[in-house]
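Lab channel / #folding
Pinned by the channel admin:
"Please post every new chain as: sequence first, then the structure tokens as a reply. Keep commentary short and put observations after the output so the thread stays searchable."

First post following the new format, from NK:
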Amino acid sequence: MRNYNKTLFVCTGNVFRSVIAEKLFAQKALNMGLPIQIRSCGTDPYFKVPHSLLAHMVQERYLIDIKNHQAQKISLEDIRWASIVICFTQEHQQEVLKICPVAKDKTFLIYNIASINPILFHDVNYHEVSKTDERLLNGLKALKLAVDKILIPETLSIVMAVHNEEKNIYRILSKLLSQSALQKVQGIIVVSSGCTDKTNEIIESIKSPLITLVRETKRNGKVTAFKKAIPFITGEVVLLLDGDVDIGDNFLQTCFSCIHENKLPCTGKVIPIKARSSFFYELSLVSCRAWNSLREKSDKVHTFLYPSGYTILLSQNDFVNTVEHMNNNTINDDGLLSLFLFKKRIIFHYCENLQVRVVFPQSLRDFFKQKIRTRMGRRQTYVHFFKKVERRWRRELLSLINMRNFFFIFLLLLLDAFARRIADFKIKVSQNPHLWAPVSSTKEIPIPLVESSPKNLSN
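Reply from TO:
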């Protein structure tokens, strides 16, 4: 997947092809809400500014202003800055590689990327510019078409494995459908895994061609549910999302921003929702803050990142190839997914703006259910590796201690130690450890919701 986060267009004079592509690209990125940076340069700028008639035609046709543009000669700094260099001819490409040979893997020809006849991108005769010049008019059309084709968004399939989510499934699906109207969402595949409540009826009541309901009469675990979703996935990118989360109004737009910034695979920030118990909210707050901080640090040093199971964004190929090789009894699906990709030198990113809000356990019983099951997952396979991840999380917790949260961090570490001991025992004696009992107090999101980014959760 090409990274257009910092795009550099290169032509000869930087007063026609590259500057128009730059402005059209910026206009398109702005309309799509993509935080892309764009530059343009020339290999041999022989004119200082664009032709006045040409500038008028571009303004008239595409509502972009190039009349004040100053031609720039390409430099080593420009090439190093760019995440992708888009050239108009092979001569431009050769000049770029002459200046910076290591840029080979990120330097492309525009007509190859857009699959358009290269003759349409020939330069114009600046001494004979006219409104009736067919070569000029075709060149302008080709530039617009190329930019549109380059920035065609990746398509997205959303996969949700749910069990007894009647209290929240309507809300989350309604939000996803509303946001999908403005994005390239191919479909929302909901795998209903042995639901005994009204989850299926609620999903069926939402009459949308985007939603596909896949029923599992027997609850067999999350990995089996993911495998059942694979035949229905048509998007180039897959979003894994839990059914018991809440999302903001720009959630899917943020997903596509991550895609266009080439931050795949990635996971996001988890924010606790304050529900019935302030005490358990404070516990979940410090726990999430430590995990979010650990993920941010792992991303910065490009090492193994333990993703949040609540939301994961990755390519269809990475999802399918990884899940198909997972044992159906796997508990730690999110951790193993990241580990399998890590072994292929594919590293997860942490995207702080990709946020989900979650209700955490509201009773001591539910707290232990959740903590024990996650620790069981990390002891099922690659025990030593995932125990190291847990130790990193505990160190992160300790680094966050202050006067306000000392009690909650101390108590969380104490309860965590107990949960780990129980998990060690249950892994040894349990017949089907992957089929843990659901945590009922996490299934209902209160209204009104808390603010999406509480100050005391910031990293």
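NK: The longest strand covers residues 349-358.
TO: also worth noting, Residues 6-150 form a domain with the Rossmann fold fold (CATH 3.40.50.2300).
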